[in-house]
Amino acid sequence: MRTEGNSGGSRASGSSLKHYVFAVLACGLTTLVATPLREQLELANTVMLFLLTVALIAARLGKGPAILASFLSVILFDVFFVPPRLSFAVSDGKYLVTFAVMLTVALIIGQLTTGLRRQAQEADRRERQTRALYELAVELAGALSLQQVAQATRHFFRHQLGTEAVLLFPDEGGALIASPADEPQTMIVDLHVARTVHDSGEPAAFGGLGSGNDQPWYFPLRGSTRTRGVLAASGGALGKDYRPLLETASALVATAVERLHFVEVAHVSQMQMVSERLRSSILSALAHDIRTPLTALYGTADSLALTRPPLPEPVRETVEALRDQALRLSGLVSNLLDMARLQAGKVTLRKEWQPLEEVVGASIKLLGPALTDHPVTVSLAADLPLLEFDAVLMERVFCNLLENAAKYSPPGSAIEITAANNGDRVEVSVLDRGKGFPEDKLERVFELFERGTAESTVPGVGLGLAICRAIIDAHGGRIRAANQPGGGGCVTFSLSRGNPPSIPEETSSMEPDQT
Amino acid sequence: MQIRRFVRNALEGDGCRVAEAETVRQGLIEAGTRKPDLVILDLGLPDGDGVQFVECLRAWSAIPVIVLSARSTEHDKIEVLDAGADDYLTKPFSVGELLARVRALLRRQARAAEGESPVLRFGTVEVDLSRRIVLRQGTPVRLTPIEYRLLAALLANAGKVVTQRHLLREVWGPAFVESSHYLRIYVGRLRQKLENDPAQPRHFLTETGVGYRFVG
Questions:
Q1: Separation between Cα atoms, residue B150 and residue A373, nearest integer Å
Q2: Is the pLDDT of residue A435 over 60?
Q3: How far apart are CA A361 and CA A359, in angstroms?
Q4: Which of A214, A257, A505, B83 could form a disulfide bond with B54, CB atoms 3.0-4.6 angstroms apart?
Q5: Distance CA A85, CA A78 (A)
Q6: Complete edge-to-edge strand list for the sheet that includes strand A415-422
Q7: Cα dist. A489→A407, A433, A434, A451, A480 in Å?
Q8: Sequence-ordered list of residues with C-beta below 8 angstroms from that of A367, at least 6 positions apart, any chain
């Protein structure tokens, strides 16, 4: 298979010289066999013997030897059989016709036979290639790692084509590296060419594919979504007949690599699911264990404060302080758990399309007593679209922002919530009339455990804004802090508008008593 | 445990008789033998979940159930409310809030027993259920059929938390239980028409992540 059908190349020329020698020998042998029979056989029969020889040579040794044999047969026939023997001279002019016919027929036979032979060889080659590809496919289907894929590929190229092959895959940084081989690498791969092939998705070779030199060919491993690597094969010597085969092989390898990729993806996501489940079960156990005593503490203090007859004033104050601190502690624990959950990354957002107004109202209601000293005004633009967000998390954002605003502004000052369209986003701001943020910390206030004023008498650990940012980030939004020109802090976040679903209007607005 | 103790103290201070149970099994037995007027259920029970308790209880009784649950477990709340619980409180909760919820449900129970009046009043709004008329400060309010159905569904469950799924199924039909934005838009419209400050509603309250509560 290596040499057949190969017109160029060094290995071919040595063996074809042998073929010519064989052709000459065969013609000589025919002459030797026919000479003693000269008396019995008519000349026409001798011609037949020579033609048979030419046919056999064509069938076995190829076109060149057949042509040589054709001419040689005519000469030998002339010299040894046509009278006068042992000379080129011809006694009778009719023999010239015999020579002409003999030569023509020999050439035609040679031509036809070599043609048939080549077709048979081609068919045979195709069949073997198909089988080899099939075997490669089977082997790749069973491969469980990229290394096994590389091994199967190398095996295929070495044993079916007699060439070397290397698979190159991009690493995490995107740089192409050769797949680990269990034996030293003999082929020299040009990484620059490989990168070009990887990026363009088009095969390449030095001097063009099929140019017949010894440089490697590069085939992209095209997956369904993107190029997954490059196959480099020192196939230059094979000739361009092999290009379809190599392309098919690289397609098979690409399929295997892609399959492994998706297996990997599935595996990783399953691992993540398991670890996520573990983490959240630990978190919820922790949450439960801390919250239960806190609930008891808060509830007990609260019921103590409500006892009848009322407790003496100093005791009542102590009890109320106890209750308030328990509540604060509980809020802190909640925030810590929220932050832990958010930082763990995969908080699943339960996004739904909803009006902003609702979550704003719910947050104000939830904070209740904490906002008694601060009248909250809500001014939402009338044309606000529905927004897609997780209501529970967004409520945390508003609660944290409102709580902050209340904490850092003097009692009695107003807090304002505004929202308006701004291009393809909606911008929401919470404004207060306090001292605002330190100018040099506008970015850092969103960092974990970072507080506007470190030694502030206002209680807090710097979790609120960090949680806000984590939640807004998870929604694909942006959050920033600023100071208002007239004094007071302002935290603004923006959410993408997206494509809110429409709801069909009711066709008739009937009087209620007609429904 | 401590939570049970202060809940008990608070309820007894309010003039209720209280029986305690430590587990779902015991709770069901107590509920069956004592026939209480109201059940307060902690979702963190040791043997099995509260949903199971509510489902078993609802098989033979309609007594109101208030659930105590931790925050950030909206899914559990929805599940237990859909199973038939009436209300929930998030830990930590104040005694005053608990008593208010208990009283509201007991009042509701008593009203249901003596037969509902067809005319309901809240704020400046008057709803005549028999004649399907809604008045605000004496002037008729025009509601679309869906708005009216939603209002009626909320009024019928006054004082209780109603889950989104429940409202969507009742007002729009079973095919719409996932279309929560319908509900949100229509609640918004009811607030526009019936609340003084729709952004800070006093009657049509949002239970974020769970559903709605109408408070008279």
A1: 35
A2: yes
A3: 5
A4: B83
A5: 8
A6: A376-380, A415-422, A425-431, A489-496, A478-483
A7: 12, 7, 6, 14, 11
A8: A399, A402, A403, A406
Task: Kindly report the number of other CB atoms within 10 A of residue A174's CB atom.
Answer: 9
Q: Which chain B residues have a beta carbon less than 8 Å from that of A291?
A: 70, 91-92
Residue A451 φ then ψ, to 5° = -120, 150
Helices (H), A408-478: 464-474
Residues in B touching A392 (Cβ below 8 Å): 72, 74, 208-209
Tokens of A305: 């404060």
Which of B9, B74, B208 lies nearest to residue A303, judging by beta carbons?
B9
In this prediction, residue A454 has a pLDDT band, given cuts at 50, 70 and 90, of low
- DSSP-derived secondary structure letter, A312: P
Of A326, A334, A361, the CB nearest to B199: A361
Rounded to whole angstroms, the Cα distance separating A179 from A182 reads 10
Residue from A330, A333, A358, A367 whose CB has the most chain B CBs within 10 Å, to mutate: A358
Chain A residue nearest residue B73, CA to CA: A284
Torsion of CA A37, A38, A44, A49, to 10 degrees: 40
- In chain B, what residues touch A360 (CB-CB under 8 Å)? 199
A:B CB pairs within 8 Å: 151
**B141 contacts B135 by C-beta, under 8 angstroms:** yes
ipTM of this predicted structure: 0.87
Does B175 touch chain A if contact means CB atoms closer than 8 Å? no
Strand B125-128 relative to strand B133-136, pairing: antiparallel
- pLDDT of res. A4: 40
Closest to A397 measured CA to CA, from A352, A354, A373, A428: A428
Residue of A281, A306, A308 to mutate, testing the B interface (most B Cβ within 10 Å of its Cβ) = A306
Residues with Cβ within 8 Å of A140's Cβ and at least 6 positions away in sequence, in order, are A149, A152, A153, A252, A253, A255, A256
Helix residue ranges, H only, A450-508: 464-474
Q: What is the pLDDT of residues B10-49, one digit of tens each?
A: 888 888 899 988 888 888 898 889 889 999 998 876 666 7
In this predicted model, what pLDDT tens digit does every residue of A222-266 receive, in sequence order?
Answer: 888 788 888 888 765 666 677 788 888 888 889 888 888 888 889
What value does the mean pLDDT take over residues A161-168? 82
Q: Which long-range contacts (CB under 8 A, 24 or more apart) does A99-103 make?
A: A99/A74, A102/A47, A102/A50, A102/A51, A102/A73, A102/A74, A102/A77, A103/A70, A103/A71, A103/A74
Side chain identity at B201, as an amino acid letter? P
Nearest CB among B5, B188, B205 relative to A365 is that of B205
Q: Mean per-residue pLDDT for A45-65? A: 87
DSSP SS3 for A67: helix
Best mutation target among B2, B12, B72, B134 (most A Cβ atoms within 10 Å) is B72
Integer Cα distance of B155 and A197 in angstroms: 69
